[in-house]
Design a protein that fits this description.
The protein is an alpha/beta fold and 348 residues long. The chain folds into 2 domains: 3-52 and 182-343, Rossmann fold (3-Layer(aba) Sandwich); 55-181, Rossmann fold (3-Layer(aba) Sandwich), CATH 3.40.50. Helix content is 42%, strand content 15%. It contains 12 helices and 10 strands. The chain has helices at residues 10-16, 53-73, 85-91, 103-114, 129-137, 149-161, 180-203, 218-230, 247-254, 277-286, 295-307, 318-325, and strands spanning 27-31, 37-42, 95-100, 118-123, 141-144, 167-169, 209-213, 236-242, 289-293, 338-343. A 6-stranded mixed beta sheet has the order 1-2-10-7-8-9, sandwiched between helices. Helix 1 packs across helix 7 (180-203) and helix 2 crosses helix 4 (103-114). The protein is globular. It starts with 9 loop residues before the first helix and ends in a 5-residue tail after the last strand. The model has no long low-confidence stretch (mean pLDDT 94).
C-alpha cells in the first residue's frame, strides 16, 4: 500500500477512549432461515446519534483541530484541552462545511458543537426534512441544493472556492487533490473494526465472510483496510451496493473511477453515483467480491432483522441483503460459514 493511502488506526482508538460516553456497540448472533450463523454488529445507536457515521464525523473534527493547533503553535495539544474555555474560544473561528444524505452531516454538526465550532451542511432536496431538523437542533446551518447527493457535494465544493476564511470542507468522499479530510473520517470508522477485532479475539469465534454495504465506499474501505491489516483470521470480504448505484463495482470492473446513472433507491444513504477515490483504490486491492442488491432485497432484509430485534433501514440492512441473495449471485457460502454484517443506522 502506498504511503498516501495508509490509514492511521491508532490515533482514533486512543482518542475515543477519552470520551466519557464511549461504549463499544454490541455484537449479536442470529440465524438465517437456512440455519446459517450470522453475527450482527449493531451500530444503530452510536452516541445516540443513530448511525456509525458519528465516529467518523466527530473524530475528523477533533483531529483537524488538534492538527491545526499544532501547526499554528508548534507543539502538540492534549486532546482533553479541546474542552477547555481558551481552546473552545479558539475553535470557534472554524466552520466545518459538508454535503450529506443525513447522517454524515449530523456527525459533523455534533463534532462542531462539542468543540464550539460552526457547521454548514448542504442537503439535496430528496433528504427527509427530519434530518434537516436534527441538524438545526445541533446548531448547524442547513442549505438545500439540487436533487441528488452528488448535487449537494458540488455545492459544498463550490462554497469552498469562495475562499471564506476558516471554512473547512469536511467531506466523506474524496477525489483527486482532496483526500486528507475524508481520510480522517475513514480513520474514525476504523474504531468499529477494532471493536470487532477485540471481540472476536476474546471470544475465539471469527467470521468466515464479511458483507459490507457501500455508497461512496468510505465505510467499506475503512473496515476492509483494518481487517486486512490487523485481523488474525482473514475472512472473505464482499461489498454490497444498490443495483441503482453500482459506482464502486463499475469502477473496479473498468479499472478507473466511473460515474454511474440510475433511479433513486430506498437505500438512500447508499444511493451514490460516484465513488470516493480513496475507497476505490483500497477496495480494488483488498475486496474479494462485489454484489448489487435490489431495493426489495434490502427492504426484506430490514424486515428480517427487525424480527430479530435489530431495527434498521434498508441502507443499514444492505449487508444482510447481500447474505440473503449471495448464492443467487454466485457467491457460494458453506453451511458452516459464519457471516458478519453491520447494521449501520436506525430509522429517522
Amino acid at each position: 500500500m502506498t504511503k498516501s493511502i495508509a490509514i492511521n488506526t491508532q490515533r482514533p482508538w486512543s482518542l475515543i477512549k477519552l470520551c466519557p460516553s464511549y461504549l463499544p456497540t454490541p455484537i449479536t448472533e442470529i440465524s438465517s432461515p437456512n440455519g446459517r450463523r450470522i453475527l450482527v454488529k449493531n451500530d444503530t445507536d452510536r452516541f445516540n446519534l443513530g448511525s456509525f457515521k458519528a465516529l467518523g464525523g466527530i473524530y475528523a473534527v477533533a483531529a483537524f483541530l488538534l492538527d491545526r493547533w499544532q501547526a499554528e503553535n508548534h507543539h502538540e495539544l492534549n486532546p482533553n484541552e479541546l474542552f477547555e474555555n481558551n481552546l473552545q474560544n479558539w475553535a470557534n473561528q472554524f466552520t466545518f462545511v459538508c454535503a450529506s444524505a443525513g447522517n454524515h452531516g449530523i456527525a459533523i454538526a455534533k463534532g462542531a458543537k462539542l468543540f464550539n465550532s460552526r457547521c454548514k451542511v448542504y442537503l439535496a432536496n430528496n433528504v427527509p426534512e427530519s434530518f434537516a431538523k436534527k441538524l438545526t437542533a445541533l446548531g448547524a446551518e442547513v442549505l438545500r441544493f439540487g436533487e441528488t447527493y452528488e448535487d449537494s457535494v458540488k455545492a459544498a465544493r463550490e462554497n469552498l472556492k469562495e475562499n471564506k476564511r476558516n471554512e473547512i470542507l469536511l467531506a466523506d468522499t474524496s477525489w483527486l487533490g482532496y483526500t486528507k479530510m475524508p481520510k480522517l473520517v475513514m480513520e474514525g470508522y476504523t474504531i468499529i473494526a477494532e471493536e470487532m477485532r477485540r471481540y472476536f479475539n476474546a471470544e475465539g469465534c471469527w467470521p468466515s465472510h464479511v458483507f459490507l454495504q457501500a455508497g461512496v465506499g468510505g465505510f467499506a474501505a475503512a473496515m476492509t483496510y483494518h481487517i486486512r491489516e490487523y485481523w488474525d483470521r482473514q475472512p472473505k470480504i464482499v461489498v454490497v451496493e444498490p443495483k441503482a448505484a453500482p459506482c464502486l463495482s463499475e469502477s473496479i470492473k473498468l479499472g478507473r473511477m466511473t460515474k454511474v446513472s440510475g433511479p433513486s433507491s430506498n437505500m438512500g444513504r447508499l444511493d451514490c453515483k460516484e465513488a470516493s477515490l480513496i475507497a476505490f483504490e483500497l477496495l480494488q486491492r483488498y475486496v474479494d467480491d462485489f454484489i448489487c442488491v435490489e431495493d426489495s432485497d434490502a427492504a426484506n432484509a430490514a424486515l428480517f432483522l427487525a424480527e430479530k430485534g435489530i431495527v434498521t433501514t434498508p441502507s443499514g440492512a444492505a449487508g444482510m441483503a447481500g447474505v440473503q441473495v449471495s448464492e443467487q449471485l454466485n457467491i457460494p457460502i458453506s453451511n458452516d460459514a459464519v457471516c458478519l454484517i453491520i447494521a449501520t443506522e436506525r430509522p429517522s
